[in-house]
Design goal:
Chain lengths: 272, 258
């Protein structure tokens, strides 16, 4: 009898210690990976701004990231604008406020939905492909080969992608803004029987320069996040096919979450 | 006394708890062909990557031409890389580029040569490793393993490096192709007058390529000497390794025996 109590106590203590150890370990490794990421972003940004530049590679990334994302971003914006008009009509008729639909569509699309949804779609399309490509290059020692051939992988691989991501996403979002508002217009005119002239003039009246600009700045930040996360996780990819798979997942997930976090922060900065 | 081309002093490297290099000492003379032999996981690749600067050693000194290189910043590192050529185990060819662009890569990007002259040199190097000019217009994925190794060799020698590293050059090749690659390595190194450092566990390859041999075991160089003395080294570890015996001092401590 007297023996069991201390034993129980010891087991409980051990469990508690190992629990604390596990918690401490994961907290430490969390901060470690944030630090590692920050160093990577710092190095990559520095190398991006200094020569040599690779204009040809950059052009290819402009086309890959910008041009080929147009259909995805366009479709997303179109249907978002359309559903927005439909939904707000259902809600606003209850207050006899149908006249606000044009404004609601324009503001939500330019300030919020076009940048965030385009960012998330591009994270899936571009972030994943960057991580997979650079990750495969890491795994097959192609990045090491670059180094031995006197080419800095940050400048050759990462800089063109980050520059293209940061510059192309605002352009995509600008196109998305127009298509999204047009989506709302189509539904309002052909489905809800609004007058075309009224709808357009209401949109113009309510929309301010800052609404569009804030959305484009957001898009630039999101483009930076997506391309940087793709590069970071690809560059630090683990071994083998599994390593590349994990890197791709992390790239998309971390980019998506960071987009949502920075969306809140930027909104706070712009409109408070 | 001559300054060694490559000089390693007490180089150590650990990954977490695992001590991979526990004090490597190695000298490679100018124009010498040094082969490091040793089992898998003994630190051969890590040693090579430390010299190349792809991995940063925890402590110790690495000198190239008598100059310390462990603390070089990126620009000095890029310049130093101009002296190096490397044949990677898997070839590490850039799969998005044609074969000739792979060979010419170091010339175009590293040495800023114009594409036409680089193309001419690339074709010449491809011929030197026994490939036709037509091969230059293919993509690496269209080539067999042996051909990829040859292209990789051509890429490694294209920039006229002073030091060439070979990471398991014959692994994954049939014995005949392995011998072809060995001959090419010997010819290319002689042709360039370069210093060569090879890591391998293929004894046929080691005998053919080496002037000097060093044996690595548990992160230390345990024997080094001219290739002629390899078969009467009097070292039981070396004896076991070169004869490929399952029983001996290497496996005794490691519980390898099934």
């Amino acid at each position: 009898m007297s023996n069991t109590n201390p034993n129980h106590l010891e087991t409980a203590m051990n469990t508690a210690t190992s629990l604390c150890q596990a918690v401490g370990h994961s907290i430490l490794s969390f901060f470690q990976s944030i630090g590692k990421m920050a160093i990577f972003v710092g190095t990559a940004s520095g190398k991006t701004l200094t020569p040599p530049y690779y204009p040809k590679l950059m052009l290819r990334q402009f086309i890959d990231i910008g041009y080929y994302s147009l259909p995805v971003v366009g479709m997303t914006a179109l249907f978002t604008g359309m559903v927005l008009a439909l939904q707000s009509y259902t809600g606003f008729t209850r207050f006899n406020a149908e006249g606000a639909i044009a404004g609601v569509v324009a503001l939500s699309v330019t300030r919020e939905l076009a940048p965030v949804l385009a960012g998330l779609m591009v994270a899936g399309r571009v972030g994943a492909s960057i991580a997979a490509e650079i990750g495969t290059m890491r795994v097959t020692e192609q990045i090491d080969a670059l180094v031995t051939l006197s080419v800095n992988p940050f400048k050759y691989l990462i800089a063109p992608r980050v520059i293209a991501g940061t510059l192309m996403l605002p352009l995509l979002v600008l196109v998305g803004d127009i298509i999204g508002i047009y989506g709302g217009y189509i539904v309002s005119i052909y489905n809800l029987d609004f007058s075309a002239g009224n709808y357009i003039s209401q949109t113009w009246d309510i929309l301010e320069k800052m609404d569009v600009i804030s959305g484009l700045v957001k898009a630039g930040v999101f483009g930076f996040i997506v391309s940087m996360m793709g590069c970071y996780h690809g560059f630090n990819s683990g071994r083998g096919a599994q390593g590349v798979g994990t890197a791709t997942t992390y790239a998309v997930v971390s980019a998506s979450i960071l987009i949502l976090i920075f969306n809140y922060i930027l909104t706070q900065v712009f409109f408070s | 006394m001559n300054i060694p081309k490559i000089e390693l002093n007490n180089v150590k490297k650990s990954f977490g708890e695992k001590h991979v290099l526990s004090g490597i000492d190695l000298d490679v003379g100018t124009g010498e062909s040094m082969v490091i032999i040793g089992g898998s996981g003994t630190g051969k690749s890590v040693t090579l990557k430390c010299i190349l600067g792809l991995i940063h050693p925890d402590s110790g000194s690495i000198k190239i031409d008598g100059n310390e290189v462990t603390n070089l910043e990126s620009r000095g590192r890029d310049e130093l890389m101009g002296k190096f050529g490397m044949l990677f185990q898997g070839g590490a060819l850039f799969d998005s580029m044609k074969v000739w662009e792979n060979v010419a890569f170091g010339l175009i990007q590293g040495k800023k040569m114009d594409r036409d002259s680089a193309h001419a040199i690339a074709i010449e190097k491809l011929k030197q490793v026994g490939l036709t000019a037509q091969t230059g217009d293919l993509f690496p994925a269209e080539l067999s393993g042996g051909m990829q190794k040859r292209v990789s060799l051509a890429r490694a020698i294209a920039t006229h490096p002073e030091i060439i590293f070979f990471d398991e050059p014959t692994t994954g090749l049939d014995p005949i192709m392995a011998d072809v690659i060995n001959n090419l390595i010997v010819d290319c190194v002689k042709d360039l007058g370069a210093t060569a450092l090879t890591i391998t566990h293929d004894m046929a390859s080691a005998r053919k390529i080496a002037d000097h041999v060093a044996m690595i075991h548990e992160g230390r160089i345990i024997w080094t000497g001219p290739v002629g003395e390899l078969y009467d080294s009097g070292n039981s570890y070396v004896e076991q390794f070169i004869h490929g015996r399952a029983d001996g001092p290497i496996t005794k401590h490691a519980n390898f025996r099934a």
